[in-house]
Write a structure and sequence with these properties.
Length: 366
């Protein structure tokens, strides 16, 4: 499944991009006045092989959740159980991601790809959120796809076997296909996993070659001693495993996480179907580096939603050649930054659908 998916990923379509660029020149606005939105809409036309490309509606957020053996090294102050507990919160509609998804009209799918502790008993989902605010007609959904109960400690041994990493990647591909088959026109990445900024930093350093200190941040907000320990853990893991960046499955297995691997699969699955993926924070960016190592043309499907405060996100986006749409200092994860960026993407495409040309509106050109 991975190999056929990779083989299906093709470059952006030049004629559709030329058509979108020409259309922009005829719309009732000074050339280039929509800045980044113009280039974004041209790329999305190339991805869809159509001008205008489809509006990115409806949108679907996929939150991949997993736990991390490296938690044992004291790289985060939060107990591991919080991963499972937050899944309960997502399914009940009470997390930040739910509030933003209701605002954006996006569906929320939570995928347990490797949670280590028992999930809380099902709480009745408050579809419109605890406040009763309407906006999203669908209930958050849980997909049970646990590959193993958390990774092994990457400070001691490989986090995953290659087969486990492959199973997680293929779960991501399957979820992309299911969401697209159910009608999603854009996929938004989400993640939940206490400790997961440590493997994200290791993946960023492995794929970009930057020093571990440049790729490592404070995650949920760790103090100075924890931060120093975290950099040391990432540095030692890279020295121990010496992951080969041309072997993305090997890198994911050595220093990655189950949600990182599944997100790489989600990106590949969407790119193969020529559906855009709006990236959230550092976990998604680290997964995107893996996806692009599997299939360089997958970058054509990627839109960077926001600039996470986590430094590895900026390092990874630079390597991918992507500029984030918004920069709000967020470092939550869950898909929250991607959801806030979604109206920018929709606006970029809507212009090509709805704005009059100089000709049709009788507006004089310069
Ligand atoms: O999205 C980001 O860039 C981001 C930055 C910092 C933290 N997070 C979230 O915080 C958790 C991991 O933080 P930590 O400190 O436990 O490694 C995990 O659930 C992530 O979704 C997410
Ligand atoms: C409370 C909490 C919520 C989160 N959402 C994503 N990562 C998180 C980490 C914590 C600790």
């Amino acid at each position: 499944m991975l190999h056929t998916t990779i083989a299906a990923i093709r470059p952006l379509d030049e004629p559709a991009m030329v058509a979108a660029g020409e259309l922009h020149g005829r719309l009732t606005k000074p050339a280039g006045s929509l800045g980044v939105l113009e280039e974004l809409s041209v790329r999305l036309a190339g991805l869809a092989r159509a001008c205008p490309p489809p509006l990115p509606e409806p949108a679907a957020v996929a939150i991949f959740a997993g736990d991390h053996g490296v938690h044992a090294q004291g790289v985060t102050p939060w107990p591991q159980e919080v991963t499972a507990q937050m899944i309960g919160n997502f399914l009940a509609g009470g997390a930040v991601v739910n509030a933003f998804a209701r605002q954006a009209g996006a569906s929320v799918t939570v995928v347990d790809v490797g949670v280590a502790t028992p999930l809380p008993p099902a709480v009745p989902a408050q579809v419109n959120g605890p406040s009763g605010r309407a906006g999203n007609p669908t209930r958050p959904r849980l997909v049970a796809a646990n590959v193993r109960p958390g990774t092994r400690d990457l400070a001691v041994t490989a986090a995953l076997t290659r087969d486990e990493a492959l199973a997680a990647v293929e779960t991501g591909i399957r979820i992309a296909r299911e969401l697209i088959d159910a009608g999603a026109s854009i996929l938004l990445t989400g993640d939940m996993g206490i400790g997961n900024t440590t493997p994200a930093a290791a993946l960023v350093a492995a794929f970009t070659g930057v020093d571990p200190a440049e790729a490592t941040g404070r995650g949920t907000g760790v103090d100075d001693p924890t931060y120093a320990r975290k950099i040391g853990v990432v540095r030692a893991a890279l020295a121990r495993h010496a992951p080969d960046p041309t072997d993305p499955l090997g890198v994911l297995a050595a220093v990655g996480g189950l949600e990182h691997a599944a997100l790489a699969g989600l990106i590949l699955g969407a790119a193969a179907r020529r559906v855009p993926v709006l990236l959230d924070g550092v976990i998604a960016v680290s997964a995107a580096l893996a996806a692009v190592a599997f299939a360089p043309d997958a970058v054509g499907a990627l839109v960077a939603g926001h600039r996470s405060a986590e430094p590895g996100a900026t390092v990874g986006l630079r390597h991918l050649g992507l500029d984030p749409l918004i920069d709000l200092g967020l470092r939550l994860g869950e898909g929250t930054g991607a959801l806030l960026a979604l109206p920018v993407v929709t606006g970029a495409v809507r212009v090509l659908h709805e704005v009059a040309t100089f000709d049709s509106a009788g507006v004089a050109e310069k």
